[in-house]
Amino acid sequence: MKVEPIRLRLGSLLLVGACLSGPNRTIAQDAPRTDEPIAALVVKANAGDAEAQTNLGRAYESGQETPPDYVQAAYWLNRAADQGNADAEYELGELYISGQGVTQDYGQALSWHRKAAAQGNAAAQTSLGWLYENGNGVARDYVEASTWYSKAAEQGYAEAQDDLGALYMVGLGLPKDCRQAVIWYRKAADQGLAQAQDDLGKLYSGEDMLSNCLSDYGQAAIWFRKAAEQGISSAQFDLGNLYETGEGVPKDDVQAANWYHKAAVKADSVAAFDAQFKLGEAYQRGHGVPQDYIEAGYWYRRASDHGITKAQRKLGELFVTGRGVSQDFGEAVFWFRKAAEKSDADAQYYLGSMYSSGEGVKQNYGLAYYWADLAVLGKLGDVQPEKAIELRNTTASHLDGANLQQEQDQAQKWFMDHPTEADTQ
User: What is the pLDDT of residues 266-287, one digit of tens each?
Assistant: First the structure.
């Protein structure tokens, strides 16, 4: 099977504070297979038949009758492309994007996709739009991207319809128009494109944070389910979240845990890592699954290894109590520190407590005050503000005026340089 180039979706590339979809997606389809034996294709291809050359290139690309050979694929596609075969031009452009069989070269990709796009090849038009959208091989130009997406979308090409919807959603290259976004997302989603179904779900749930003009959790649940059933981990996570909160669907902790688990085991996106945390939380609380601290620790650990801040803090808590894991204050400090350094105020409080008590780390009232002060200034969750204030006051009593001022200054500097809320990871 052809290994498609991984391409970042619009939402993950724009610094707009929101993500319209999962982090990665592919645009191109698998190379079409031909029933004609390779031996017969070789004869025709050597005779100069451009269609046979294209099909031979695809056969080598997809591993038909033989393991994939991208060098041979590129050779035959190049011969067909030189004769003006649009499919070959497109396929060759894709190889230049992925660097399979040729040296990766976005300029060459742009050249070949432009040739194919000019002949009306919808896949090439979509790829050309992607190159303009991301500034690969050409200056970034959202207007030009929207032009090529529109050409392919009007031909019914689902990936282009989804990408056109994304441009309308954020207003790049086109006027911002969430209703037009819905129209194009829906066209792609109705063709079964899972990414578009997920994008529709995010739009209806208001998750993209760009517009709530069509907020409808019921519709969000419908489209998340369609995408989730196709294995899109971000949709599985979002559907689980709807079941947990009871928005758009009846509240159902069992269903929530079920969808979190599906996403968690895929471990292929930030949403999947968030699902690992949610699953750990479900096992810790016994929501939708039997209470099981060992399972909770397992999933918190997996999420923590992927950088999920809340999971790191929760894992630290388990190491303090010894529930589901062997009690280990040193490990607790390790995980509290990771979360604390990413602005998790609860973790900052716990880390301050460890420095104050000297458990898992050398006792240090200065650092205890520092982390307690950050916790007080931050946004606490499970920890009551009064407890953080008490810790700060208690540790302050162990410091002289100069040391106290130094720690206060350090805390203020850190607080000014960092976000006040823990990041989503």
Answer: 999 999 999 999 999 999 999 9
Taking CA atoms, 369 is separated from 306, 338, 398, in Å, by: 29, 18, 9
List the alpha helices (DSSP H) in 155-250. Answer: 158-170, 178-190, 194-205, 217-229, 233-245
User: Which residues share a beta bridge with 8?
Assistant: 24
Asked if 139 and 174 touch (Cβ cutoff 8 Å), the reply is: no
For 181-199, how does the pLDDT look when each residue is reduced to its tens digit (9 = 90+)? 999 999 999 999 999 999 9
The pLDDT of residue 417 is: 79
Residue 424 DSSP SS3: coil
Bridge partners of 25, per DSSP, are 7
Ordered structural domains, the chain, with CATH: 216-306 (1.25.40.10), 318-425 (1.25.40.10)
Phi, psi of 287 (to 5 degrees): -100, 110
Residue 105: CB atoms within 10 A of its CB come to 16
Helix axes 106-118, 122-134, angle to 10 degrees: 140
